[in-house]
Amino acid sequence: MSRWRDVKAGKNKNTTEKKQSSTFDNKEISASIPARVKAFIVDMFMIMMPLAYITTYVLMDGKEDFQASQEARWAISLIFGAITIIFWVAKGQTPGQKAYEVKLIDQKTRKKISFLKALVRYFIFLISAVTIILSFIPFFRKDKKTVQDILTNTIVVDEKNI
After folding, report:
1. What tens digit of pLDDT does each residue of 72-111 get?
2. 122, 85 in Cβ contact below 8 A?
3. Strands, DSSP E only, in the chain?
4. Are 157 and 39 in contact (CB under 8 A)?
5. Of 28, 115, 136, 158, which is most buried, counting CB atoms within 10 Å of its CB?
6. Distances (CA, A) of 141 to 58, 59, 112, 145
7. pTM score, two decimals?
């Protein structure tokens, strides 16, 4: 038990430990799901749509050829992934994440993630998107982490909370 003067002056050992633990509590600093979804939609329009347009009308003979080609759609997904990974490694956020002030960081170090971790995270995202059911996991977790966040030990946070 601390002395009254220590408690009044804010020198209580227990309160400083609580303040430090709440600073690093994932559910308090995690970005909201709507902000993350909006950031993803912005990224789709800023990165994916130009890739799809160039592929469909410049590299291929039009919409019908693009729709018939599974390879073209997977190639666009992989190019989109490469661009996203470059943004995550270089800046810690994609243009959409920058617009909504969210950032992807390593959960332990609180810094930008490595290339390998970003690559693994994107491939887990692809699997999550294909299975659809894995996309709903953040709605059932208090810390709002996705499957790719859980498996790669990353977290998407609000920039103002870092």
Report:
1. 888 998 999 999 999 999 999 999 999 999 999 999 999 9
2. yes
3. 102-106, 154-158
4. no
5. 158
6. 43, 43, 23, 7
7. 0.78
